[in-house]
Design a protein that fits this description.
- The protein has 357 residues and is mostly helical.
- It folds into 2 domains: 148 residues, no CATH class; 178 residues, no CATH class.
- 76% of the residues lie in helices and 0% in strands.
- It is built from 16 helices and no strands.
- It is globular, with a radius of gyration of 21 Å.
Length: 357
Amino acid sequence: MEKLKRFLKRKNIEFSAKRYLIDALGAMAQGLFCSLLIGTIIRTLGQQLGLAVLTDIGSYAMAVSGPAMAVAIGYALKADPMVLFSLAAVGWAANAEGGAGGPLAVLVIAIVAAECGKAVSRETKIDILVTPAVTILVGVALAKWIAPPIGTAASAFGLVIDEATKLQPFWMGIAVSVLVGIALTLPISSAAICSVLGLTGLAGGAALAGCCAQMVGFAVISFRENRWGGLVSQGLGTSMLQMPNIVKNPRVWIAPILTSAITGPIATCLFRLEMNGAPINAGMGTCGLCGPIGVWTGWIAPSEAAVSRGAQAITPAAMDWLGLLLVSIVLPAVLCPLIHLLCRRAGWVKDGDLRLQ
């Protein structure tokens, strides 16, 4: 056993929730952002502007989402170069075999393939053959074997959430908005979670509401401490910057969480706001305005995941634009400071509790 522990330590193979559910999942979201999400935005712009070159560029970026995710995961796992480059083939296979649940298949399979590749890396004199062969053979074999059922399970679970939100838009609007919003601020990836589950439709709209409540909410309530730099870094970057302050005083989180519990059902019940762009957008919030942009792309050109659940392109009406603006920006910017003020008056939060280091 001690010999195995020394071997794993030497190979930097660490079996932990942090390594796989925080580091790998977060990196996977970045890979998705740099391929599927940005590609969707560019392609949609090309389609709307009639520029075929942008449409082609966007399509190429979207096509390599599997390899991008797998390589990003390998990078997070500190894979050696030969392993890292070999993961491109693994990611392509896992994403293709996983279908609508491809991202989850890529996450699981890329982790296993990367760790197997790391285990044999630089252990033989023919490393240039052994390392990529082991990584690709393990990864692609797993893709053929377990990616389809993983994809089916992930897609089915996402469909259950979507259908439950349609049947119970008020309660599910609260649940999805609060839980995904919390995930966005925690050191895990809400974007990857939404992509793995394929959250679109009303459930995607509720997820978007929760994420925006966290980002815009924290940006506004911490303005007196962090001024314009904090407003931009949290409002267009990530509310995860507040995690050290949340650990010190969890009560600073009350206002954003309650705000998401309010805006979630407003999105699902009042405005029937659907997020039918790429599912990753549902977990992005106002980060680079990707969440609202995802709603817009879903109106104009729904993603494959959304189309598979009955979504169709629409011409947005004034009510659609009003709902998007209120849920994404205005309501979080108004409600969160009001709730936060009550927390301050109750003595739960004081000056300096939200200052970014």
